[in-house]
Amino acid sequence: MSDVQLYLIEVDKDKAEAVRIAQQSAQRLEKKELKLIDLITSLEEYINNRDDGNQRAKSVAYLAEVLSSLSPKALSFQEKRLLSDFILGRIEGDLEGIGASARALVALETLGKWDSETAQKVLKTFLDHTHPVRQFKLQTERYAIVQLVDLLLAKYRDAIHKMQEEDPEFMPVFISYFEGEKDPRNLMLVFSLLQVPMTEWDIQANAQDLFESVFNYFPITFKPPPDDPYGITAQDLKDRLRDCIASNSDFAPHAFPQLLDKLDSTSMNTKRDVLQAIQACVIGYEPRTINLYAVTLWDALKFEILNVQEEDLAVESLKALALIAAKMVECGENQLNAYIRPIIKECNEHLEDAPTKQSEAAGKILYAVAASSPPVADRITKGILPALFALFQGSESIVRRRGLLEVFNEITKAYSDLEESFPDLNTEALQAFSTDALDAMLRGFVNAPTAEVSFRLTSLDGLAQLAKLRKVLSDSDIHRVVDAITDVVLHEKIKGHGDIRSNAIKTLTEMAGTVPDAVRDRALPAFMVELPDVPADPSACDSVLEAFAELSSEQRIFDTVVLRLKNKLNAAKHQKAPEKYQRSLLLALLYTFKFGSPRQENGKIQSEYYTDFAEPLVADIRQGLGNVAPSILEITGRICNVVLRSQGAHFQATVYNKDLEWIPSAINASQGAQNQAFTSFVLYYYAALRPEVADAADIVSQLKMQAAVAVNPSAGRNGGSLRLIALLLNKFANPKVMQSTLEACSIEVSALLSNNATPQAINLAFAVVKALITQGKSGALSTRYLDLLLQLLANGSENAVAQQFATILAPDDILTRENHCFVSGLAKQKVFNQAVPHIIEAVRNTTISSTAPTSKSNYLIALSGILRWLPYSILEPSLSSLSPALLQTLDLTSRADDIAKAPTLAIFESALMHDPNVVQEHTASLVTRLLNCCASVQIPNGAKAGIAAANTAPVRAKALLCLALMPRQLKREAVVPYRRQVVKRLLPCLDDPKRAVRMEAVRCRTAWLGLDKGADDEE
Amino acid sequence: MDLDKDNANPTIINPSDLPSRRRSTPDAKPLGIFDALVPAYYPVALVDPLSSPEHLHDASSSDDDLDREEIDEQEVYDLISTISDPEHPLSLGSLGVVTLADIAIIPPSSPQSRISTVRVLVTPTTSACSLTTVIGLGVKVRLMEALPPRFRIDVRIKQGTSKTADEVNKQLGDKERVAAAMENRSLVSVVSNMLATCE
């Protein structure tokens, strides 16, 4: 059998096999085992089968398949020519297999480039015999044709262009060729190939037809099928169509009227598409074309802004107006004026009754248009500001004046935007009004009644805006502005009037970036005046200090701010200022380094800051050992930490080796509270060090020392020691010899817990376990230890142990990656996997009445302690097995157990949001328990005191929040039965003693009442 | 479509001028930025003298019920100022339809009575506003749903602000007529749209 016969048998059964057969034929051709002439002859019988069109089509498909498998050198020039003539000749008489013919031609073209004559002939044959393409019902056939035409227009532009130039009849045929195409994949190609004539040819005579041929598809409403293999989205089609519409200025007379017509559509999506198309046209068309339509466009677009329907439509319209303005600048003076004039007129009219929705919109228009180009800003300013300030002077109403200033601020904002791209922007027009504006706003900011918050804020905003612009204000004017703002920051003590002061601080900080000299010369000294060396009332200085520290977020004045703080601190120390004041100054320093903008070097804080600021503080501690106040020790530690931790190992080692001389012995020598205070300094200090810096012997001796403090029942509070132990173990101890290290320092957990462990030993054990679990490098050991801790829960009574479980995963500002600690990403998952099944099992098997009455509540408290730190995604898969235990947690009644309820409610909240189906099973029990958790007062006398839970306010609020989610998240039929009960029992919650709870109660009750309304709608 | 509104271009009050809890209780000092610098959330026993244990219980519990925060005018204002106007996508607060000054809480008239009265005066955006009744109804419904039953709710149109004030006041004051209005399906849907923006 010949290959073609085989192919015809296989093609309907096994596509891949058929392709393989064709490839085989191609190989034989290449190896010269088969002659082209023989191959063609073998086709003859089938390709000419008069009775079976289907078979003819398949034969062409075979040919196309063979040709596309050939390598370029396989056929001679003559053969290729013969083949293309053969295929084209067939098309003239027979359209069966047209898609395959097009594919065969594309394959031939890949084998060797055509001359222009062939290219023209191909296109002509197709246009003559296959017009219109829509006659072919199969998308794939049309697709092949479109691909062929696309290829011709991509590679043989000149040849095809010539056809258009020589034959006036060419374009109409070509344009209507694709008419009626609906398939998105084909349309993507059609839109793209039509752009060649649209952008490159002179199509004036056919502009309307060509335009209509694509605009017919506007707006695109295509929704891709869910399993679309080609992944074409509506947006892809919209983008290509928009490019077509915007491609040729000759389209303008047709495009703009139709687009504006569609802008009146009631569909927001259509309006969106129209606005984007208008923007594209404004960018794509010639300036003189836009000039013809500029005012018409303005008249239409302004409505979208003045009467906002959807915010984004207004934004897009503003963009379009700005683009038109930019285009008009290219046109020339007169044209620009003609466009701007109606805008100015309209906006001035709206200013007259400011502040209204429309005066606000006018401000937005002015900003958008003015920011498009400097000459536009200049004209807008000249056209608006005289009227604006005339209105301002003529009105006594503060509200009116505020509305006007808001518009003025929009214009200055346009200038400051422009200044970024045009550094030597001409601001003369604005300068002409700068004195008026400055006086008005200074007066507004300083003298207006404090209740006029928005007026003062607008003035403040405007002042900052003006000061930022170069050349608009003189130096002395800028000083007036800085003085006024500083004065409010320092002296406005009246509270409760909005955010004037915090906004003033923010503005002053911004100005430190734009006019650093003025802030440094005027504001900083004013601050220092308010900060005496020894204040009579230290707490009065706090707000000044806070504001001062906030200024450090601007890098340009950072160094000055920290230096002033340091000097002030030294002076305060020297003159023995109250400890509280010294602490505040230290906190200010800490704030600047933590949240300010210190100079950086290779991505880390410059090491000079340590030498200049932290080191002297450490030296003070060393000198004053035993006499330094505890609060100062801790904050000094934190300052060291923040500056030292990003430094390199070399720098750290130098610092550390120097301090090794005194720190260990100092700890040893200190006693009691002083010891713990000093430990807190050491804690932050060691937290900064890189693991490789520390000396192993020092670490072991530190551990021993701290362990001794930690287990000593008379040492009082020892949290610092516990945290230090956790830090040292996590960061410096070698995981390979962890157990022996623990034993050597006598902090091995099983030893700690054996024989009636003291509370101190148990706390220490938790600290050790926390360190190991966070580190994640001693898997077996931490698993064993965690088990030991879980066993403690079984023997009841010790509520404190259960509560300690919350500490294991609690976030900790010491054990962090920034502090070079080892923080395993799997720690939470591991603890969950090990502890939670154990606890759930225990809860199930324990009854309240058994021997240890509190052990069940202990388990529940431990559970919530672990769960509260877990991301919801970890516990989500186990939700259904967790639910019973979680519900029982909500039943806990004693006051001390309340700590377990809040995290449990948080879990129910997440579950209601993400997995309402799981919660739904428990609807009845959850509703009852949540209602119990909402109750604020104990049931009066009748009931036994202590049994009715008096929930804390956060628990009540959270319970109401969960309860409010139920009608929204669960199926209607699941919740409706409880509606009456819930609505009734929520009434007392509306009278809850706490305002925040009442707010939640209102929300919750509204949600449940809403169920009723839903029922009415369904009837 | 804007032509059929009674007032298409109303004056809007700037959000920072609206009454808020912060403005009405000037004494509450917000936490300073330094207070957040030394966080104290480390729970239970690993805490040390540096991190105050009070924070663990979220400043909650014991003083809870002793320290009652009474329902005041500001709270009533917060309940109704977020209702949206049936004509504009704006809140009644920002349109000045309800103001703090026009809300009064009147304590029980006699020592035996527990019933206090909340009186709200509504100011329509124009004196000819045809939707005045609906706005009044919305305010009334919202307060009936959100305030505990020991409050009697009295919603009226502010004197001299509407041509139809007397008629509307009569309607709003009449329990039967309010109840009847809430049976009217189209009225219910208008009101629930207005209340949809309430938090």
Describe the structure.
The complex is a heterodimer of chains A (1019) and B (199). Helices cover 72% and strands 0% of the residues of chain A. Chain A has a two-stranded antiparallel sheet. Among the domains of chain A are: 176 residues, no CATH class; 148 residues, Leucine-rich Repeat Variant (Alpha Horseshoe). Chain A has 1019 residues and is mainly alpha-helical. Chain A is built from 53 helices and 2 strands. Chain B has a 3-stranded mixed β-sheet with strand order 1-2-3. The longest helix of chain B is centred in the last third of the chain and has 15 residues. The two termini of chain B are 29 Å apart. Chain B has 2 domains: 135 residues, GMP Synthetase, Chain A, domain 3 (2-Layer Sandwich), CATH 3.30.300; 39 residues, no CATH class. Chain B is an alpha+beta fold. At the A-B interface, helix 19, helix 24, helix 28, helix 30 and helix 32 of A face helix 1 and helix 6 of B.
